[in-house]
Amino acid sequence: MRRLSPGRPARLSRGRLARLREERGGIAVMLALLMPLLFGAAALGIDMAAVWSARQQVQTGADAAVIAVAMDCARGDCGNIKQTAEDAFWANDEAAKLSNLGPGEGWIRVNGREVSATQKKAWLVNHFFAGALGEDTGELSVSSYAEWAPFTEARSELPFAISYCTYKSHAASLGSKNVVTLGSGTPGGSCYTPQGEHVNGVGINFTRPDSGECGTTTVWKSTYRFQNGSLPSECSQAYISSLVGRDVVIPVWDASHGQDFRVYGYAAFRVTGFSTTGGGRLTGYFTYSARQVDDTTPPPRNAPDLGARAVFLTDK
Fold first, then answer.
1. Do 187 and 120 share a domain, yes or no?
2. Which of 9, 80, 146, 180 has the greatest number of C-beta atoms within 10 Å?
3. Buried b vs exposed e over 27-54: b needs ≥16 C-beta within 10 Å?
4. Has this prediction a pTM greater than 0.85?
5. Distance CA 19, CA 24 (A)
6. pLDDT tens digit sequence for 122-157
7. Phi then psi dihedrals of residue 114, to 5 deg
């Protein structure tokens, strides 16, 4: 074996140098061939991300559209559903900022308590890089569904509950704005629910408020206890005055035993005035009212419909 002298670089033979030049040339050729594929893959990834972002933003706009229409319908008047849907969609910040979104067409439909929206013509999203390959735009379409149903759980703004008989006598025609006064002296009377349950007792009672709150949280079909006395200190004059002109939720009971009562359903009451006389009196009228709920599990659809309604998105 030949030893290399210290300090002297090793010399490659002409054959080895030729092979190295060939390998370097081969790598350069491979890179040249792969570069379009690498750039194409990167461009495809960027364009796919843009389409995904566009889909998310359009979906948010479609959700806003069906919720807006469902809210109107739940209040008793669907109105111009096309205009409502368009206004709600474009009022959505993310959808409105999507400058590269081409024109699209869709339809919205109301079927009883259900509202659905989908695309009749796909939206066009401009491609940033794929245009160089002749693919200037890509298509996407979305669908969204909303529904409304009577409340089955609610936090009422005031610690009141009324009997079904009181509700029945004052809310014969929801939306008619028949002004009434509710207070501790409101008569209850005797009547029957549509399910045949006999109701008899005082018309309106105080309920136990939530800790540190003026209002009360209750659940449909659950039993709670009336509370003697007057409005708690949390129900300040300033707080109650802030409710004037707003819709409040009032639990309606159908059965009572001593101080206990069972929640039959929930009514909506538009407050037009309040007096501290006799422990507190509300003036206003029963109406339809809607609130959006964010629960992932929609409420049951079979609760009595007394005017207070929940609006929520569904999977269809």
1. no
2. 146
3. eeeeeeeeeeeeeeeebeeebeebbeeb
4. no
5. 9
6. 555 555 555 555 555 566 778 899 999 999 999 999
7. -105, 140
